[in-house]
Amino acid sequence: MSNIIEEILEFNKKFVENKQYESYATTKYPDKKIAVLSCMDTRLTEILPAALNFKNGDVKIIKNAGAVVTHPFGSVMRSLLIAIYELGVEDILVIGHHDCGMQGMEASKLIAKMKDRNINNEKLDFINSCGIDLNEWLKGFDNVENSILETVNIIKKHPLIPADIRVYGFIMDPETGKLDKINAPA
Questions:
Q1: Measured in whole angstroms, how far is the alpha carbon of residue 182 from the centre of its chain?
Q2: How open is the CA angle 67-73-77, to the nearest 5 degrees?
């Protein structure tokens, strides 16, 4: 086991022994009835909830690379549907950010890095033979605002999203936490 995992487990043991968890007690239902789809960028881990005044238990946060819906029946949409139908979510916030690692990312470079880590062509060919276009699946986006608007539209137009669910797009500055609302073109 790596040193960092051992440190995590030791910290966790003390966290539980000292009952530090008590200050985080809440239910599975989001108090503010909001689901947030956000990028997994480490800079957003604490600044996003702090900048939006979200406390533990306020919102459901779904994170992935780029804050995008890559497939209308993938895990992000599944999570949003569960948040709506089982947990009472009424508003969905798609929050991308400036200086996102997905902006301008080229699938070919990522695939080359996989090959450098001993992922062979046989495995890549197998995935392609299953109907997954790796170049499409792994590509980034050119413009964060357009990417957010595309994700907002996928969510809004999804056949299983009720008409009364409100979906908004935002861009956050990962340094300051400043949030700008994106408006769809008229």
A1: 18
A2: 45
118 φ, ψ to 5°? 75, 25
Buried/exposed 106-117: b ≥16 CB within 10 Å, e otherwise: eeeeebeeeeee
Query: d(Cα 119, Cα 133) in Å, to the nearest integer?
Result: 16
**Mean pLDDT across the chain:** 96
Determine the longest span between alpha carbons in the chain, in angstroms.
Answer: 56
Average pLDDT for residues 45-53, to the nearest whole number? 97
pLDDT of residue 183: 86
Which positions ≥6 away from 155 have C-beta within 8 Å? 37, 69, 77, 80, 92, 94, 161, 167
pLDDT band at residue 1 using 50, 70 and 90 as cut-offs: confident
Residues in the chain: 186
DSSP letter, residue 34: E
Secondary structure letter of residue 24 according to DSSP? G
Q: Do residues 65 and 101 touch, judged by C-beta distance below 8 A? A: yes
For range 78-95, the mean pLDDT:
98
Burial class (CB in 10 A: 0-12, 13-18, 19+), 179: middle
Average pLDDT score over residue span 162-169 = 98
**Residues whose CB is less than 8 angstroms from the CB of residue 166 and which lie 6 or more positions away in sequence, other chains included:** 90, 91, 92
